[in-house]
Amino acid sequence: MNNLATDILDSLPDPVLLLDAGRVVTRINPAARAVLGERALGRDLSHSLRHPDALGAVDAVLTGGGYRGVEVALPVPTARAYDLQAVAAPGEEPGALLIMRDVTAVRQNERMRADFVSNVSHELRSPLATLIGFIETLRGPAADDPDARARFLAIMDAEAARMSRLVDDLLSLARVESREHVRPETALELGPLLKGVADALAARSDVPVALDIADGLPPVLGDPDELTQVFENLLDNAIKYGGEDVRLAAAAVARIPDIGLPGACIAVTDSGPGIDEADLPRLTERFYRTDKARSRSLGGTGLGLAIVKHIVNRHRGRLAATSAAGQGSRFTVFLPSAGSPPTP
């Protein structure tokens, strides 16, 4: 292999190995070394790639030429999915070229899409089944029973409202995700926005929200409708699940964690039963609920915190959640100030 071919091989982002007719690795690029280790060179492929399907594909090419492809899972050092492509090596010397393309992210996205469709179907199937059942009952046994009819219609109305909330949240999530890469450019003052959200929710729920908005809160670049949705969601959760002591505090911070930029810190705290530590990392997953029955009974769709996460990401901020069983919960949103340099 000449210097140009070696340079090209070394520059490829995918792991690539060149094998001779005896399946010994004769060339290996840096990407392949990172996956299979330094000891792969000069040894039979089976020493570094212990997967029968992968070895079978290489053997088939060494024996009959042509091309073979296979997808395998490798623990290197954590489980990764690779699309392996074995082709006959060019030139007069018999051998094979093995290209390994990491498809872990592709497969994860496929699983997420499948899970999402499954979850949406499940969330819609339950209220639809209720509606269909009551419609059949109203057409039959309850047709001439005014008390039953009124009771069933009230339940049907609640189930229809539940489906409507789910559809609204799905559309909202889709909108936010579609423009997450575009940071808002409008400077706005957080104080009036936060006060308006807190007052409106407190009036609807009869649960007072203790406000503590510090002086000197910096303006931020933001979409007022989206930020209203963020704090409505966090406060609504605190009121529904967090007991009678709900607080919203906002203050300036010199350095936002993980970003290092100045900005605003807005925290929503409650005095509720708290959230188990094991559940905290999953709170922003779509349809994840710590108490499914209670969430549904209170009108939750399981999408609220996922929407919050994507909106905060669009604003180049950070979302943090801390909680302990029996000690309440605290959700904190960090937003860079309007004068901060852009972040990725």
Would you mind describing this structure in some detail?
The chain is α+β, with helices and mostly antiparallel strands. It contains nine helices and twelve strands. The protein folds into three domains: 100 residues, 2-Layer Sandwich (Beta-Lactamase), CATH 3.30.450.20; 73 residues, Signal transduction histidine kinase, dimerisation/phosphotransfer (DHp) domain (Helix Hairpins, Orthogonal Bundle); 162 residues, Histidine kinase-like ATPase, C-terminal domain (Heat Shock Protein 90), CATH 3.30.565.10. It is 43% helix and 22% strand. Strands 2-1-5-4-3 form a five-stranded antiparallel sheet, sandwiched between helices. It has a five-stranded mixed sheet with strand order 7-9-10-12-11, covered by helices on one side. It has a two-stranded antiparallel sheet with strand order 6-8. β3 and β4 form a beta hairpin. The longest helix is centred in the middle third of the chain and has 36 residues. The mean pLDDT is 86.
